What we know:
By secondary structure, this protein is α/β, with parallel strands linked by helices. The protein has 15 helices and 6 strands. Strand 3 (209-214) and strand 4 (218-226) form a beta hairpin. The longest helix is centred in the N-terminal third of the chain and has 20 residues, at 28-47. The relative contact order is 0.15.
Amino acid sequence: MYDPADSAEVFDLVYDELFTTRLTEESLPKIRTIMMEQNALLEYQKQNGLAYAIPEAIGIYDVKSRFKGFFSGHNFGDFMKRITAEITEDPLQFLSKLDEARKAVLNQHHLSVEFAGSDGSKEKMLPGLGKLIGAMSAPAVGAETYTLDEYPYPKKNNGILANANVQTILLSASLSGIMPFSTGNSVIANIVTDELLTPEIRLAGGAYGAQMLFLPTSVVLFSYSDPNLTSTLEVFGAVPELLKTLPYTQKELDQHIVTSYSNYTTPKGALTTALEVAFNHLIGKTPEDQINEYRELKAVTLSDLPKIGEALEKALTEDSQITVYGASKVIQENASLFDQITDIR
């Protein structure tokens, strides 16, 4: 962390980078280098099954994931192709558009500032912050701006042909109207992972790993570096029955509760804690909300297992889909599983 006394210098540097940098023809080589770096990052993502497929699977049921995926997945790749053509065909027009985009992004409307620091550091930070805000554009963002619901939906039941010899396999389902989200669900996810996914998919099936995650609006089961496809999907489909019939004892359940609780309460450094507090404030999460999350973890009982098993059975029956990233041969041989097949090679 920097000394608060350096705040003025830091803000001056940021100010120069954001507001005094001129976009001229001399800027084009640097811009092209940045674009090459972005394209390399996208190419890496295309070669990483988890990084590519998870946003696709989750975004179908979660608007925030669609928003994030729009700026990292194939949608962003399409955007990069378009602006790569524009900078080649008309570089001056491209620079003009880039400058307009800078003004639109650096806008005072809907601005939020989160700050965490030691005593006295706020006062040293405010002058530089005021200079930055004063340089931002004032006009309101136009009505043509996307709302979250308008970001494109990923494809359902999508087989993604990649340069891979193994698969990343995801089964996701909507939980809206079926069961509420609770941090206690992480206990259930750990049980499923330990009792079913790891022994059947990793140890017996040869995959590198498999996991279950509960999200605010959905549930997702996934495996990665998995040499199989249909057998893994069969294991995913067995999750509801496992939870409905698992002969667990309270002692076994308590072990998972302790593990989940420790994951949520791991001590953090000063910077990580400050970032977490700032983020929680942005999303409206209070300290009492956080305490309630801990209570939800401790409140999981043996009777919850069959109830959640029944809820998951309903979810998987009513609104579920698969996303598979992997070898062309495997996906093509199982083409009947998919509504569409996408080639990203």
